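hiii, so i know i said id send this last week but things got crazy w the move. better late than never?? heres the sequnce for the chain we talked about at the cafe, plus the structure i predicted for it. fair warning i was half asleep when i ran it
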Amino acid sequence: MRLRPNASRLSAALWRENIAQSRFRAGRVGPIELAAPLCAIKCMVLSSKTRLLLGCSVGLLVSLLGAQPARADDSAPAPDKSAYSLFNPTPTDAMRAFEPERPAKILNPFTVDAGHFQIESDFLSYTHANVAGAGTTQFETTDPTIKLGLTSSIDLELDFYGYLTSATHSNQTGGLIANGHGFGDTIIKTKINLVGNDGGDFAMALVPFVKAPSAAPGLGNGVVEGGVALPMQINLPSDFVLALQTEYDVLKNANDSQRYANLVNIANLSHSLSFISKDLSASVEFFSAVGTDPFTPAEYTLDLGLAYLIRPNVQLDAGANFGLTRASPGLNLYTGVTTRF
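okay and structure toks below
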């Protein structure tokens, strides 16, 4: 999927897969031709830029260490919401805490309350990748994820890739290799909370998903793909929150019609920046995607995010994702919004 935050980070896996599997075609968006297995081995070596980014992340975490107000007592039994459904919505005063997935690739384990909507979208996302002698620049806008609560523990989510513009240039000559624009694919997800939806220090969910190939010609690989994700969240001491996700994708091969397995793992650590504002928070995330296809190199990124709650059900965010290997998009900058009603 895409290297945008809402995401589901399946996002990053399928975005990368579309890049890998498409071919340059004149007048249409062209992906980066990923290098052969030798490149995958070279990509594992961390550069000085990578070490600098890791150092900055450690510094950010250290700056957040400090005495924080204790978390509210979660020992009270969770309220019974089993009677609420799509046609019998959860009352406003009984809704659970507002839990945007932005700004991160990782999913969270919490569902939207029954009968309510949540919308998460980029305002604008910029991505630059430089692989195999070609540089690709991509802009994306208006790419909502629309979530609808079906029951107290299940929601339905539609993730629409927004309007994309892309251009690929040769690093040697500067000449245009390919460009294009249009709307991307659609991801259909169902989130099933298994534990912790309404309280406690641990939460987990199961998220099966499928990609519908709705992209304009040249912007996707034109096939159905999918998988399943298992996001978890753990409340730590000093008001830190650790989120973990493992994900199994079944994707199309870049060279033929065969399928291969792609394993995604994400770790995200977040914390309130209450010394600036009680409504401001920051996150540091490590993303990895490793597949069984020898022609699709592994991808690793370091992701930083800021979120600001401007109203009880409205959050603004911004973030930056940095590629840690040559096969990873070098830079992804974005800003967006989440709202619930």
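btw Residues 1-54, 56-73 have pLDDT under 50 and may be disordered. thought thatd interest u
miss u guys!!
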